[in-house]
Amino acid sequence: MNREAKKPRFVDRSRLRWHTNLSKLMSSPRFINGALWFWPTRFIARRQASELFDLVSGFVYSQVLSAAVKLQLFDVLKQPKTLSAVCVETGLSTTAATRLLRATTVLKLTKVLPAHHYGLGRLGNAMIGNAGLQALVAHHDMLYRDLSMPTTLFTNPGSTSLGEYWAYSRSDQSTIDQTTANEVSDYSNLMAISQPMISEQVLQSYSFSQHHSVMDVGGGTGRFLQALRQRYPTLKLGLFDLPAVSECHQDTLLNQLNIKQHRGDFLHDPLPAVSDLITLVRILHDHNDAAVMVLLNNIYRALPEHGTLLIAEPMSDGAGAERVGEAYFNVYFLAMGKGEPRSSARLKSMLLETGFTEVRVVNTPLPLLCTVMTAQKST
Ligand SMILES: C[S@@+](CC[C@H](N)C(=O)[O-])C[C@H]1O[C@@H](n2cnc3c(N)ncnc32)[C@H](O)[C@@H]1O
Known about the structure:
Helices cover 54% and strands 13% of the residues. The chain has 19 helices and ten strands. It has helices at 10-26, 29-37, 39-70, 73-76, 83-90, 94-106, 122-127, 131-139, 141-146, 150-155, 161-165, 167-170, 181-205, 223-231, 243-246, 251-256, 289-302, 322-336, 344-354; strands at residues 81-82, 110-113, 117-120, 213-217, 236-241, 259-263, 277-281, 308-313, 356-362, 371-377. The model has no long low-confidence stretch (mean pLDDT 92). A hairpin with a 3-residue loop joins strand 2 and strand 3. It is globular, with a radius of gyration of 24 Å. Helix 2 packs across helix 3, helix 8 crosses helix 13 (181-205) and helix 13 (181-205) runs parallel beside helix 14. S-adenosylmethionine (SAM) binds at residues 168, 176, 184, 191, 195, 198, 218-220, 223-224, 241-242, 245, 265-267, 281-283, 286.
């Protein structure tokens, strides 16, 4: 549907005019200065200035966090330390450590404590003990490199660091199964280390006890299934991923956990019909619409009648996840060269188009990390 070509109705025309006039007023220097001097509007003007400045400085905040992670500042400050102890443990000069600590303190990563000590701030506490989060922060160097020329990224991304990193995003579909273990080991490790954050959300939101057998498609090194095995010891478990990824596995771990491995390309090879539940954890957003439809159809064929599909990934309409979905993931996937964040409504329509029914959105404690959706196959 070409919405632009539609002639605006009278109501739309008045709204557009109202919007244009308001924008003109709000962007006029006289109005902005006036708003700052007039106390009832001062609060609004200040908040707007601060929001805008946060957009300007966002990149700097990210780099402060990145430096803190790389210097292992959060580990250093597990116990309160003096400035000189921080210098010794991070290798920074007094001037550099002071600057870093001033920045991390206003960003709530660290805290000034009595007796000239520093400790962890509210957000620093969340970083500690979360190896996945720290690995994700370090991983962002690649995205920052790709964003060093933002207009190029939007107009003509060409080859990017993230495109190289996610081997399956740069491979065309006919060469994907020629990908080597070397090319997939970095991303497989990153996924493995960050998986506990996701599996906690899924396991808290959905009961797997109604199922006999689960196959995790694009299951990587099996960390999601490992968490599932701990909670549901009697479930039959299977994992499907690229042959190269299975070469990175600790086979012994999967064997110990009695997880059956299936190797292949889920866009080209039929999926084995071995389970009444198929899970897709952080998979669909990596692919364009056409590939998503191929995968959903493949899954539909592999499921038995009344079988279930469970999708878990960040969705752009999850509560509090809009900025992350529309601004962050949108650009991340642009740099990666494939994929896009989707809303649960969009995924629902793709599931219905495939033939799934009873599509349900299950709220998770932290939609920023993932939302869960389930759908049934009924013939
Ligand atoms: C973003 S990772 C998610 C891994 C895991 N589900 C998790 O959440 O930790 C995507 C996974 O899908 C796999 N994958 C991508 N394209 C594939 C394809 N065409 N066939 C099979 N697996 C594929 C990748 O190898 C990778 O393990």
